[in-house]
Amino acid sequence: MGLTIGVDIGGTKIAAGVVDESGKILETHTVPTPPTAEGIVEAISAAVTGAGKGHQIEAVGIGAAGYVDDKRATVLFAPNIHWRHEPLKDKIEQRVGLPVVVENDANAAAWGEYRFGAGQGHEDVICITLGTGLGGGIIIGNKLRRGRFGVAAEFGHIRVVPDGLLCGCGSQGCWEQYASGRALVRYARQRALATPENAEVLLALGDGTAEGIEGKHVSAAAREGDPVAVDSFRELARWAGAGLADLASLFDPSAFIIGGGVSDEGDLVLDPIRKSFRRWLIGAQWRPHAKVVAAQLGGKAGLVGAADLARQG
Amino acid sequence: MGLTIGVDIGGTKIAAGVVDESGKILETHTVPTPPTAEGIVEAISAAVTGAGKGHQIEAVGIGAAGYVDDKRATVLFAPNIHWRHEPLKDKIEQRVGLPVVVENDANAAAWGEYRFGAGQGHEDVICITLGTGLGGGIIIGNKLRRGRFGVAAEFGHIRVVPDGLLCGCGSQGCWEQYASGRALVRYARQRALATPENAEVLLALGDGTAEGIEGKHVSAAAREGDPVAVDSFRELARWAGAGLADLASLFDPSAFIIGGGVSDEGDLVLDPIRKSFRRWLIGAQWRPHAKVVAAQLGGKAGLVGAADLARQG
Amino acid sequence: MGLTIGVDIGGTKIAAGVVDESGKILETHTVPTPPTAEGIVEAISAAVTGAGKGHQIEAVGIGAAGYVDDKRATVLFAPNIHWRHEPLKDKIEQRVGLPVVVENDANAAAWGEYRFGAGQGHEDVICITLGTGLGGGIIIGNKLRRGRFGVAAEFGHIRVVPDGLLCGCGSQGCWEQYASGRALVRYARQRALATPENAEVLLALGDGTAEGIEGKHVSAAAREGDPVAVDSFRELARWAGAGLADLASLFDPSAFIIGGGVSDEGDLVLDPIRKSFRRWLIGAQWRPHAKVVAAQLGGKAGLVGAADLARQG
Amino acid sequence: MGLTIGVDIGGTKIAAGVVDESGKILETHTVPTPPTAEGIVEAISAAVTGAGKGHQIEAVGIGAAGYVDDKRATVLFAPNIHWRHEPLKDKIEQRVGLPVVVENDANAAAWGEYRFGAGQGHEDVICITLGTGLGGGIIIGNKLRRGRFGVAAEFGHIRVVPDGLLCGCGSQGCWEQYASGRALVRYARQRALATPENAEVLLALGDGTAEGIEGKHVSAAAREGDPVAVDSFRELARWAGAGLADLASLFDPSAFIIGGGVSDEGDLVLDPIRKSFRRWLIGAQWRPHAKVVAAQLGGKAGLVGAADLARQG
Predict the structure, then answer these.
(1) CB D157 to CB C77 under 8 A?
(2) What is the torsional sign of CA C131, C135, C139, C140?
(3) Which CATH homologous superfamily contains domain C122-295?
(4) ipTM of this model?
(5) From chain C, which residues contact B within 8 Å (Cβ)?
(6) Angstrom distance (rounded) from CA B296 to CA B113
(7) How many other CB atoms are found less than 10 A from the CB of residue D45?
(8) Which residues of B touch C227 (CB under 8 A)?
(9) Quick one: B3-111+300-312 is in which CATH superfamily?
(10) pLDDT tens digits, residue range D90-112?
(11) Which family does it belong to (chains A, B, C, D) (predicted)?
């Protein structure tokens, strides 16, 4: 089989990329993300058509945030777009005249890493995306595992603190409230407010107030040894590692692949996560330990993974 | 393929059963459980030999508590027997002259239910054993999933309360400290001590003291409407259901099968667990819900499952 | 000594009342609450002057939300009015020509109940105000205890859940996030969303949606036995009672007086709080138990208490 | 008034000391602690008689672990001695012919520090004893506050983790399970087991195993910079400081005095506690902060305090 197209739906633009069997992106076509749900359907079609021009395309894979049904056809619920039981596969197929597969975007990214990135060579691997929130995907026995109804791998919403922080999902204490880019910023702001004398570098990078601290400031300040920034990463790692230990108890994978914007910091964030994982791993002395490694494809993982899942049919 | 033998290692006796392809136990042979690790090896062999007499046996499956390696040969660690990196497969094969498969006992029970019990017809199912502790097994895509290193499905040791109750595993806040037979008894004792006037039936069943309350008393008293006993089951269900909701976020199975002694109480315990599961399920209105059903094989699930896993090779 | 004036600063109106030595309000004068901090100072003065007309007034007591310093003169911080180190005593004294005492409003209400309400006859009593948030006051040895710096008795902000819900104070897990009118509504909304079939009465009282549920709906529905409403009160009581048990460990008062809007429901809310308090009280069998009683003065407690504190000088 | 005797009841010996009005111990008489409850009564009497020989003694104060009633006469419940509603005052008065006051031992120590140690000059001060467990005493308005029924200031048993660690009191999540000498050792053992490579100094001080680690080893290793030991103190401080912040919200004292064996480490433990306290203090920028200071009387505080309380009558 030859070329397929993968689609990534971002908050500001929609990207469609032509991908070959080796995971290489031959060409990308992007369009702005429209404000309406129906507009996005048209924009996806336009991006696919634009990217595919001049190529022999065999199928299209779309990565979408939210719940996708087990037929990989319908978006049951999307958090940021008003899609409720949206028949996305049918709509796009009618418009572009190609077979379409819809996939949860974090699943698609996990598959991308498994096939062409940090997951190569592993049969059982868990991918965690530490972005604004926390998502991921499950590979067991060399297959993406989507659950019976298509909505597995919602890592961000396991409850790590009973009666804990409110989550956008309506529940409380979800993991992504404690281990994500948003959590990192909250840690930094709380600490900078409590002890500004330990956050001088950090505060100087923003507008001087705790509220003005953003994620990039925390990273930059941590690299300079700012105590509050370093401690904020440590707190993030405490929760991330403890959650990985739970996932090791459940899935026992050979590796955890950590992607998303937070992982761009590399060992600044991965080393404390590894330590925390080790600290909380049950029966650590009696079992082989999963590796905790950085993702390799960056922001391209979802597009490449979606294209490859379309190829697999 | 014809007959295989399954072995169940209990605290007081070791049972070996001859099982046919339909999961029927044709004959069982039991021996007392010896006190030493090496004695247990001999006792398993004796039970297998005794059960197999007069039958054409093709293989033996042994369900053992603890970590079993990915080759299903070595017990890495057992909680109640002093086995540390114990080559159980080799030792038993030498003694009984048959191919042997070693499996975690909760995995074996899960497989038994999947093949011949409540899990029939499901491709993706999670089995939870609520006994003294909490164990279980994972079936995804019609296969038992053991993880890369053989130690997956340690459900009882995911952390549900940070800095929570000490667990026998050395960690804190493990699920089995909140959802298990032992937890049920603790709930009942605490409540009976605090409000004995609400535990009259319950206290009368034991020796009259909170410390004298045992699991069977809680069940019997709950059936009579004893407020403390009913509330203890509700507390157990609160934690069990919340944990199932987490597992639904991760695995999205079509069903949860609840086995173990606690499940013998049927809907007395299952109904509150279902309610609690429903209460905590993330995105409940946008997704199909897994069923929560009672196990069907009772205490035979492990033996039958181990025998069947041996047959599968 | 004769008459004093107490002032209550509400969100919509400011009330000044002339109070005699027996705690009786002889006359009340109210003015609308202006939007600005300085406007409120003028409005307080106007209300005091209006109320005092024709009376021989000896002093004025003002109940203000927030931190009041140990000299009872300066509002260090107010949550809803932009007062930061506001010299309220001086400003009002200049305007009304009478001695002024500034007091935290929950402290004033506690004193009102102690002197003329449910606290009469007790030497050591803790008052808890379950309103939108949770406040209170401490009477030990027949004196209001304000702490060394004036900011004691901030009951609502003790941490009952590590890493718990965000609070308006900037911290997490504060008691008032779990035991207050606002918490009650949150409980009801969460439960109505998860299990609408158990909230039929409750949903019918609002606009039919979970978001439309308000506090008065929960009370009304609970009186009709609506399962979700009843369970929401039980959850509130679980947290309220557990917190009272902590306060009993610390203060060992002879009584807890429960005031605020939530307490208007009387035994509907007090009985479950009593049960929960009893459930969590440490060493319950070895100690006399504090009573948990309803406040008696309703919304007048703060005004009457402030007036009486001014009389005490 | 002249000389009084204070009594300290330890696990191995009972000490009676003659104390003058300045808090100076003129003479001490000790006897071994007998195994039976009645034997301890006799031993106390013997110690008092022995110490008093040749002195003009006016009264005796006894510090006893457990609940003491509001008349300071009866031990309602003692955790380590089988005293249940024990009329200790009467029994000792009959034997020694002097007026006797019974006081909770942590209250007595708090009073000792207030009168002659780190609490001098403060009107409102909270003393915390970080020993094997966690106890303390409350001074408000220059008086020891015992509560209505005599059992106030049970700091160690406020609930800081819902559903947390089991406590000897029968409840769960008590502060002393997280902030005490026993907790410190648990932290060190858990960490040394998980990451022995970070505990080389610590493990070398004991018998080489995690279980062999004792409190003195943690202190010694922390002084040498052993990572696990330092981290264990940090964890202790995290919980101690957060609890102090709660107490500041409630009592708003001018100082916290930290005593008990853990405080012998001085700034090694006090500095992290101060940081943690500052981190968690509500409204920190709008209020004066209580000081966190070390106790000054060491193990003598209880005896001296009991003697002084007897003098006060």
Answers:
(1) no
(2) positive
(3) ATPase, nucleotide binding domain (3.30.420.40)
(4) 0.96
(5) 162-163, 191, 193-195, 275, 278-281, 284-285
(6) 7
(7) 22
(8) none
(9) ATPase, nucleotide binding domain (3.30.420.40)
(10) 999 999 999 999 999 999 999 99
(11) Belongs to the ROK (NagC/XylR) family.
